[in-house]
Amino acid sequence: MVKSVDEMNKTEKEELLEIITIDLKAILSEERYLHSISTMKKAKEIAKAHHYDEQIAMLTALAHDIAKEMTNEEYYTYAKENNIPLDEFDYLNVIALHGKVGAHIAWKKYGFTKEMQDAIYYHTTGRANMTLLDKIIYLADKLEDRRNYNEVEELRKIYKDSNNLDKTILWDIDNDTIPKRIEKQKLIHPNSIYARNDILAKNSK
Ligand SMILES: [Fe+2]
Ligand SMILES: [Fe+2]
Prior knowledge:
Layout: H1 10-27, H2 30-49, H3 54-63, H4 72-81, H5 88-92, H6 97-110, H7 114-121, H8 132-143, H9 152-162, H10 165-183, H11 190-203
Helix pairs in contact: 1-3, 2-3, 2-8, 3-7, 6-7, 7-8, 8-10, 9-10, 10-11
C-alpha cells in the first residue's frame, strides 16, 4: 500500500509532485504533458484565490488526465481487473471514462484521497454538489493558459469578472460542454445535467 496523501507532510507532497511529473512525461504525449503542467499552475492560482490547499489542488490537477491516452481496450481491461463498476455511459460516452480510471490509478499509485479521486473522476462532466476541489479542477482544466478553443476567452472573462466558480462552470456547461455534444450528435452525460441543475437550483434560492 502506498502512503495516503493525507498522511504526507509538505515536503512529501512536493516530492510526490515531482514523481507524478516524471511519470506523466513518460506516459503522455508532449501536448498532454504540457496541458497537465499548465492545469496544475491554474489550479494553484484558483485554489489560492478561493482559500483551498494549494498542494492538494496542484497534485490533483497534475494527475487529472493520467489515463487520457489509454485505449478503450485498456480502459475496459483496467476496470475489469480493478473491479471498477462501469455503466452504459462508460461504453457510449468514453470521454468521461478517463476520469473514472484516472481516479483509481491516482489512488493506487500515489495514495490520492477520496476527495482528490472524486475531483479527477468528475472533471469532464461535473456532478451535483461539486466540492470546492471538484470546481477547481474542472475549471483549471478548462481555463489553463494553453487552451485556445473558441469559447475559452469568454470563459476566462466570466471567471475574471465574477470570481465565481459556480457561475463560470454553469456558463461552460451551457455554452461549451452541452452545445458541443449536441453539435456532434453525441450523448450528454447526465452528470453534466446534474451539475447544471444543482448550480441553478442553489442560486435561485
Ligand atoms: Fe480530461
Ligand atoms: Fe485535461
